[in-house]
Amino acid sequence: MTQKKTSTPVCAVFDIGKTNKKLLVFDQNYQVLKEIQEQLEERLDDDGYPSDDLLQLTNWIKNSFQTLAEETDFEIKGLNFSAYGASLVHLGANGKPVAALYNYLKNFPKPLYKEFIEKYGKDIFRETASPDLGMLNSGLQLYWLKKEKPAVFHQIRHSLHLPQYCSFLFSNQPVSEITSVGCHTLLWDFDKNDYHHWVEAEHLHAIQQKPMFSNSVFTDTATARAIGIGIHDSSSALVPYLKSFDEKFILLSTGTWAISLNPFSDEPLTASQLAKDCLCFLNFEGKPVKASRIFAGNEHERQTKHLADYFNVKVDYFKQVKFDRDLIMFLRNKYKQATPDTADVLLDCPFVERNINLFKSYEEAYHQFMLDLVAQQIASLKLAIGRTNVKKIFVDGGFSKNEIFMHLMADAFFNKQVFASEIAQASALGAALVIHEHWNSEPIPEQIISLKRYY
């Protein structure tokens, strides 16, 4: 008699990025057992602007989950969703979309912006901890629809942020979730911890459900499967750290942007911090996270191309450059150095002002560029830290693999522990972890983050 094969209990997570759409399967130790990746063609919305194709995305999510559910190797105990923010799906009375998934990069019309500010004042940006970002303030998308496309606006019963729409496809429950509402949407008043009064004044009832915490689930009665309500991908990437460490820390998440995240700040955001591109968003428990950012990855790409052209080397030659402490000392003595006080986070990297002819080698120029970039990075990090007594700084993403960057950060923050950290699929992992108690009977493993300390 053949023994029946037991299937592995897993959590499936859809991780919907702007470029890549993924379906990942995690076991109870949070190891990735399967990954499906897709890139979907954009389509033009009714204004002729490129946007994610909502119908294609919906079909891909449904079909890829159906295929996974039919695999006998897995018992899908949990299902959750992490997705990019600032994007709304507008549903009619029948639960079907009535508009395109408008791209947050669309321009917000200037006359409409002027009208909005005249009505509600500039203080609204501080009150909602949202920099002035046009369509990236997703609340303004509803205002725009109301004024510019009233026929569409009046059909809307529910406006769901993208992670919650993905969840709705399985739960049929239109909900609002705290990390999506609380991230530069212009919707959430951080002073009163509720929707801002303008939302009620404009009768935006489609978005006004009380936000639920990210660990909320619905149970599928047929399968007893826990269906998460979805989570904003930036907030999701923070979850593994919050679940793993009790001490106060800062996470510096590096890619095109280098974003400093402080989940332990209780200081209200000031107008001057907001002007320096600092903002607050809400974490999975509804607590504020202070964030600041610089365009560091983009600047690194720009300058390494420039250096490669000048010194006639490959564009990725910087990967071969080893950290040289003597060279750092030499540069500090020879050239006037930028400091965190002089390196403005909103301006170009100080390196652009330097005469490249003065450097004898690529190594010398690259070390100086990193000194300048790190001066800006320290200024940005200090904005997020404020008065919080932080013990640890975790750096993940591209710069965590850059030895020069990491050594200079450890030098600057010599009184704190500075780590390069690595998590595979951080946003998707966060989405699985945030509903841990609803699908996983095992404790959260200790080693979900690999760390390397720099001194």
TrEMBL record:
<dbReference type="InterPro" id="IPR043129">
    <property type="entry name" value="ATPase_NBD"/>
</dbReference>
<dbReference type="InterPro" id="IPR050406">
    <property type="entry name" value="FGGY_Carb_Kinase"/>
</dbReference>
<dbReference type="Pfam" id="PF21546">
    <property type="entry name" value="FGGY_C_2"/>
</dbReference>
<dbReference type="GO" id="GO:0005975">
    <property type="term" value="P:carbohydrate metabolic process"/>
</dbReference>
<dbReference type="GO" id="GO:0016301">
    <property type="term" value="F:kinase activity"/>
</dbReference>
<dbReference type="Pfam" id="PF00370">
    <property type="entry name" value="FGGY_N"/>
</dbReference>
<keyword id="KW-0418">Kinase</keyword>
<dbReference type="InterPro" id="IPR018484">
    <property type="entry name" value="FGGY_N"/>
</dbReference>
<dbReference type="InterPro" id="IPR049382">
    <property type="entry name" value="FGGY_C_2"/>
</dbReference>
<feature type="domain" description="Carbohydrate kinase FGGY N-terminal">
    <location>
        <begin position="12"/>
        <end position="197"/>
    </location>
</feature>
<comment type="similarity">
    <text>Belongs to the FGGY kinase family.</text>
</comment>
<protein>
    <submittedName>
        <fullName>Carbohydrate kinase</fullName>
    </submittedName>
</protein>
<feature type="domain" description="Carbohydrate kinase FGGY C-terminal">
    <location>
        <begin position="247"/>
        <end position="437"/>
    </location>
</feature>
<keyword id="KW-0808">Transferase</keyword>
